[in-house]
Structure formats: structure tokens, C-alpha cells
Amino acid sequence: MDAGTLGVLIPIIGVSIPIVAIWSAHRQKMMKMQIEATSSNTAEKAAQYASRVQQLEDRVQVLERIVTDSGYNVATQIEALRDQRQVEDTDSGMALDIDKQPAR
After folding, report:
1. How far apart are CA 55 and CA 60, in angstroms?
2. How far apart, in whole angstroms, are the C-alpha atoms of residue 90 and residue 69?
3. Is 24 left (phi over 0), alpha (psi -120 to 50) or beta?
4. pLDDT for the residue 104
């Protein structure tokens, strides 16, 4: 290299080093902020999921208690609902006999 080229490169290198250092520090700060934002967002979602899971577990417990309760008779209640539906349909002028087979 000749002296002229070296005379131009030294100031360029001298200016480039601080620019790279500033950019590098900025990049590190941005990465740190991104990691913190991601971790707080993840913690919030985890708390929401935990809350939802607890609600679902509570509902399952209620359903298990209803189904396993010895005084609870699902078939009887279904039939009662069918009977009630037939009475309501008859009152409106539409007789629906769901249990009967059509005549052939």
C-alpha cells in the first residue's frame, strides 16, 4: 500500500470502530429488551392457561359429581324432557310422537 491509501484508510478505520461499538451496544440492549418482553408475555400466557385449566377442572368435578351421584337418574330426566317437549308441541297444535315408528 502506498502512503496515500494508508492515509485515507486510517481515518476510516478510526471512525468505523466507534460506530461498530455503538451499534453493537445498541444491538445488545435491543436483544435484552426483546428477551424481557418475551419472558413477561410468556409468564402472562402461562398464568392465563393455568387459570383456564383450573376452571375446566372445576367443571369436570361438577360433572363427575352429577353423573356419579346415586340419586341422579339421567335416563329419567331425558324422558321427562321428551314428555315436556311433546306437551309443548301438542299445545302449539303440532303433535310430535318421536318414539313411534311411521306406519307402512
Report:
1. 9
2. 34
3. alpha
4. 45
Using an 8 Å Cβ cutoff, are 97 and 82 in contact?
A: no
Distance of alpha carbon 46 from alpha carbon 103, whole angstroms: 59
- Between CA 97 and CA 82 the distance in angstroms is 10
pTM for this predicted structure: 0.37
For residues 34-49, one letter each, b for 16 or more C-beta atoms within 10 angstroms of the residue's C-beta and e for the rest, the string is eeeeeeeeeeeeeeee
**Interatomic CA distance for residues 48 and 51, integer angstroms:** 5
pLDDT in tens, 15-55: 888 888 999 999 999 999 888 888 878 888 899 999 999 99
Q: What is the DSSP string of 75-88?
A: HHHHHHHHHHHHHH
Q: Which cell numbers hold the place of 10?
A: 486510517
d(CA 32, CA 38): 10
